[in-house]
Amino acid sequence: MSKQLYSNTETKQLKDNPNVLKVSERSITYHPLFKKAAIQEYQKGNFPTQIFEEHGFDLEVIGKNQPKRCLKRWRDTFEKYGELGLEGERRGKGSKGRPSSKNLSAEEKLEKAEARIKYLEAENEFLKKLDELERQALKKKRK
């Protein structure tokens, strides 16, 4: 969340921009189509500030570093989750949290279960070794 507070006139100006979904006094939620277009334009060689200015944003209002930060975050999200990652809100109250495992195929569920089993087996081995070390320490203390 930004330290910057938007005034009523700035909030209205931002709300009037078709590339903005919603605005609060502290944050801007950008339209998913704008995010995708911004990434495509960035990949073509346009600068973040240029992209935002061409889409009607006043850098004096949103901040001069905001375009660069937004594009960095959106590119990371795009690389990790694809276009679907840009459509949903991944932060704040609107966030859906981690992707659910309901839509996983049987193979993916099996891989996930096997990885969990390996983790739990390693954890059990560690706890056994820790327990043995504690017993040895107690024996030495009693002697």
From TrEMBL:
<dbReference type="InterPro" id="IPR052057">
    <property type="entry name" value="IS150/IS1296_orfA-like"/>
</dbReference>
<dbReference type="Pfam" id="PF20310">
    <property type="entry name" value="HTH_Tnp_2"/>
</dbReference>
<dbReference type="InterPro" id="IPR009057">
    <property type="entry name" value="Homeodomain-like_sf"/>
</dbReference>
<dbReference type="InterPro" id="IPR046929">
    <property type="entry name" value="HTH_Tnp"/>
</dbReference>
<feature type="region of interest" description="Disordered">
    <location>
        <begin position="85"/>
        <end position="107"/>
    </location>
</feature>
<protein>
    <submittedName>
        <fullName>Uncharacterized protein</fullName>
    </submittedName>
</protein>
